[in-house]
Design goal:
Order of helices and strands: HHHHH
Low-confidence stretches: none
Helix content: over 70%
Strand content: under 5%
Mean pLDDT: 90
Shape: elongated
Structural class: mainly alpha
Oligomer: single chain
Radius of gyration: 18 Å
Largest sheet: none
Number of strands: 0
Number of helices: 5
Distance between the termini: 19 Å
Length: about 160
């Protein structure tokens, strides 16, 4: 049972958390902005190459991926908690810190990133909001990176 739970936990983390992290990170690059603001730049910068042009359809797809994969990503903490219970590790500090960081990442995605993506699609701005969104996506990714490190290093593990 442990090996099945561990396999589901890791695979769901790679596919769903990884997918939502990539989509959240790429969204600001493709999200529409007010006229005159190129991808990755400020007004007045040299025009970007054709491959870096903003594309609303891509941004919409990334927004949907962020939403869908984050919903399916709930499997990761659910299976992780089940695995910790089966292994008798719920009292270990690295599990508890990982749960707090996972909750913080999920909250950041649900309360800040997804709504800001929705708003950016509804009403393109000058790009300032997209820079904030990009920063939030970076924080989201760092939270998950910290969880992965805790899962590997397991500080304070009993065995």
């Amino acid at each position: 049972m442990e090996k099945l739970l561990l396999s589901l936990h890791v695979l769901a983390g790679i596919v769903f958390v990884g997918g939502s992290a990539v989509a959240a990170s790429l969204f600001p690059r493709y999200a529409p902005v007010s006229i005159g603001v190129p991808a990755g730049g400020a007004p007045g910068d040299a025009p970007p190459p054709a491959s870096e042009e903003r594309n609303r359809a891509v941004a919409v797809a990334l927004h949907r991926i962020t939403r869908g994969y984050s919903v399916f990503g709930l499997v990761v903490p659910v299976v992780g908690i089940a695995l910790a219970v089966v292994q008798g590790r719920m009292g270990e500090i690295w599990i508890n810190i990982s749960m707090v960081l996972t909750a913080a990442a999920g909250g950041l995605l649900a309360v800040q990133i997804y709504p800001r993506q929705r708003d950016a699609l509804a009403e393109p701005g000058d790009g300032k909001g997209l820079r904030t969104l990009s920063m939030l996506a970076g924080i989201y990714n760092l939270l998950w990176a910290a969880v992965v490190v805790l899962m590997i290093v397991r500080p304070g593990a009993y065995r």
